[in-house]
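Q: Hi! First time asking for a complex rather than a single chain. Here are the components, and I think there are two in total. Is that enough to go on?
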Amino acid sequence: MVKFVSVQNIVDLIQANGLEPFLQRLADYVEADFRRWGLFDKAPRVAAHSRDGVIELMPASDGNSYSFKYVNGHPKNPLMGLQTVTAFGVLADVDTGYPQMLSEMTIATALRTAVTSALAAKYLARPDAETMAIIGLGAQSEFQALAFSALLGVKKLRVFDTDAEATAKFKTNVGWLDLDIAYAASTEEAVLGADIITTITADKQNATILSDNMVGAGVHINAVGGDCPGKTELQRDILLRGDVFVEFPEQTRIEGEIQQMEPDFPVTELWQVITGQAAGRKSRDQITIFDSVGFAVEDFSTLRLVHDCIQGTPFYTDIDLIVAPDDPRNLFGLLAPVAGQGAGEGFHP
Amino acid sequence: MVKFVSVQNIVDLIQANGLEPFLQRLADYVEADFRRWGLFDKAPRVAAHSRDGVIELMPASDGNSYSFKYVNGHPKNPLMGLQTVTAFGVLADVDTGYPQMLSEMTIATALRTAVTSALAAKYLARPDAETMAIIGLGAQSEFQALAFSALLGVKKLRVFDTDAEATAKFKTNVGWLDLDIAYAASTEEAVLGADIITTITADKQNATILSDNMVGAGVHINAVGGDCPGKTELQRDILLRGDVFVEFPEQTRIEGEIQQMEPDFPVTELWQVITGQAAGRKSRDQITIFDSVGFAVEDFSTLRLVHDCIQGTPFYTDIDLIVAPDDPRNLFGLLAPVAGQGAGEGFHP
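A: Yes, that's all I need. Here is the structure of the assembled complex.
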């Protein structure tokens, strides 16, 4: 039997653990897997592009477990009342190839994206960073606010969205958080004095959400919204002025902000910073940029945590996804009750 | 909600349709998709190899629907009472990226593999072929026997396996079929006088199940067992003497019998034969070889059939795999009941 973790199960599981403690555990799992990055079987995600969006498969394996995530990105979906991004994932046993768990991952993806941003900022932002600007108040925005608050203690936010409804939604959702939030009237106003700038807008196009003149010395940019071919948020000049850190270069060069740059544009891999093999921030005035696109290893970490958490809980159900004949070679025998009927005669063993 | 088709659902669905009628419908769907081959977004499967096996993802899309299959291949699994091959698949809507159906595919894969073999033989074997040899009586063998009988009227079988238990299982399972079966004492004896030779052994190694001297003029070889790197069944000389037909050359050159040959070894694509763009069998004496490895489009066809068949039936259940907040941008709101508790205080909207 395969364990199935539904949307309601994930909500209940997080409730049972507590949202902030769950985020902290997730951060620990993600960081642990970045620390053993070399062990993973890694590849850029497999994307099927269409007019209005993309469907992607994101596999990863550490040699013991295998995971993949199915995720779509369809910017027009909200016009139909649907999510821009939905996802689910599977964890499997490498030794047998059998799937062990199927889980919702729309919520889980939002959590891991925010956690990875906070993890990068832990190594790249100035240690005394206390104010974050958030540009774009869509589905991912509150998760970013929560992760930076819970994991890094960033309590001061300056936020902006062109859409008043998105802003109102954000305001309602973060009302219970212990945050000091300034609602700015423009991106320029929001980024004023911010130590960290998170860009998380939704348009599927090359946009200039942040231009070079808005970025002061010493800022860390958490560039989350530029995450597929043709979709960027940062003016090219910013990338030339700062130092760029990425998850998996082969994928980020296709999907991230650095799709604007030459194929040999220098970047540093985040795992190298986390393990101390490469420098992160080198000076107070340096501009650091985390060009986040989301990588399969982060989903692997997330599924691993969910799988560890659900053992002995009511937060999953068993589903009959994989056949289990008494004799493994006798697959056809499963159709025995079918066979006779299909042949127009009784079943004669 | 996503429709979930369990193992039991598939068995019941096939029972409701009748096994042979269901195979016939599946053959129609597979042939229809081979006829519009050019429409498909195609790629070799994405494989994660490990010591004892492989886990693969097989995506395909016709621009309206998208499918992928998860499938493993672990030859040692039967020693642990597990299936060598298990699979499940998903059908999704390209316009929204939303998954529509999750289905078991272990049984479905066995059916589509056999159906594709029969489809290839319809175009490649001599029209008067009436005797088939089957070498290897594992999990796929009865499906091949049934498909060739139901779809091509091949009623005479000559079969062999080195394992007496596998042979006994086969004998029991096909007892109800209207077949004339000779149980041979060796591969050499089984292939004597056969018009079609199906090789479907399980060893994950380069083996010589069939050597050149066993293959007479005019034979069609349905080479099913050589289906991953390092696993072949035919002596190289046979491939040089006959004409080889494949599903998707980019994948077959990695996984099929032709992995033994140079990268430019000439092959003909099956869809070209089916659409009349390339010749199939050209003479009675020609040796034709279908180098079957299984391609994602066949799984697409299978999922499409299952999806069409289950509408209005009890053969699926809805599962809560994808979030559905009232406001699509308000993903965080789903955690509202969680949030307060996680922050150690009540939830204040």
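A: Residues 106-124 of chain A form the longest helix (19 residues). Let me know if you'd like any chain examined more closely.
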